[in-house]
Structure formats: C-alpha cells, structure tokens
Specification:
With about 210 residues, this protein is mainly β. The chain has no helices and 14 strands. A hairpin with a 2-residue loop joins β2 and β3.
C-alpha cells in the first residue's frame, strides 16, 4: 500500500489532497486520508475517584456536605462519571430532602488535598485539578440535578436514593467555574450521617468526542 494524491480544481497553483492508493481487484482506487485535529479530541489527563469523610448533619438548613468544583484557570474540563450521596441515621431522625445542585462557586469547608485523591492509574494520571470539599462548604447554587430523602429510622440501612451514574459521553461536564454540591434543604438532625462518593475524568478537547 502506498500513498498518493489527486489534484483539486485550481485556486492559484492548485491544492493537493492526501490519498492512500490501493488495488481493488484489477482497479487502482484512492481513499482519502482524514486526520482528526488534536484540539478536537478528548485528551484525558487523569481519572479519579474519592469519597468524603462521614459528615454529621446539623440543624442548619442549607448545610453543604460536599462539593466538587472545576476552578477557574484549570485549563481542563471535568466529566462526572458517578456521583453518589449516601445517608443513614444512627438514631431516629427527621426525614428531609437531600439535594445535589450545579454550583458556580465553592469555598470554605475542608478541602481534600490533591495528594489524597485516588488516581485510577498512579503512573498515567496527573495531579487532579478538581477541588473536592466537605463539611460546611459555602456554595452558590444554580440548578438542582438530584433530590433524595434522608434516612430517618434508627440504624436504617444506608440510603442511596437516586444515583448519578452515566453512560459514556452522557456525563455532566463541569467547565471552569462550575461544580456539583450536596446539601440538606431543611433543618437536619445530628443523628444523620452523609458521605459522598465521586468518580470523574479530567480532559482537554471537545467533550462531545
């Protein structure tokens, strides 16, 4: 197999299109060479998974248990693969809404150090850009993406509610200045416990590919 070209209609001296020459039966045919622009590909820089510590609820409405945020200047996009907020009660507690929101800002709380976020491949994956926080995070909410009921019965089995679990290329994409956060929508109960598990990829390029 060899490469050749065909000459296109001229504009000035004419352009040449790159072709691959093949023999099909007794005929010589040409197939176009297509090169995908590097800027359009999804180039993954790292794959990560982490879980927050177990966080106790409070009587403060709007208390934020956890967040993941793509900071301005990261130069990356974040694809959320899985997001699970688990809640259980160690004694009889109130039933309230536990909601996950898209957010446009995240601060305060406790920031999980990048070194403490698990890489799926310790050799190939770079240092994560995502900021994961827990326990009293200050956020600016945008749109709600998940709602579930907290556990209320003593020793109730950890309640998973609805899980954000995405098929390939159907993820929630977090651009710079965007994130997700889980908070209680009413006054909670100190006997409730919440942990959030997050799995994501960081990449550059077109998220549609």
């Amino acid at each position: 197999m060899s490469e050749a070209y065909v000459t296109l209609p001229p504009d000035s001296s004419g352009k040449k299109a790159r072709q691959i020459q093949k023999t099909k039966g007794s005929e010589t045919v040409y197939e176009r060479v297509v090169v995908i622009d590097h800027d359009l590909k999804r180039t993954i820089t790292g794959k990560y998974i982490t879980a927050t510590p177990v966080v106790s609820a409070t009587t403060a409405s709007g208390f934020v248990f956890a967040s993941i945020f793509n900071p301005t200047g990261s130069g990356k996009l974040i694809a959320i693969k899985k997001y699970r907020a688990l809640c259980w009660a160690v004694a009889t507690a109130v039933y309230i809404e536990l909601a996950t929101w898209r957010i446009t800002a995240a601060s305060a709380g406790t920031l999980i150090a990048a070194a403490d976020i698990a890489k799926k491949d310790t050799t190939l994956d770079g240092t994560p850009s995502a900021e994961v926080r827990h326990t009293g995070v200050t956020v600016t909410v945008a749109q709600k993406v998940l709602a579930q009921l907290t556990a209320g019965a003593a020793a109730q089995f950890p309640y998973m509610g609805v899980v954000l679990d995405f098929a390939p290329n159907e993820e929630i994409i977090l651009r710079e200045g965007e994130g997700l956060a889980t908070r209680q929508e009413a006054a909670g109960d100190a006997d409730q416990r919440v942990v959030v598990l997050i799995e994501w990829e960081e990449f550059t390029g077109d998220p549609r590919i």
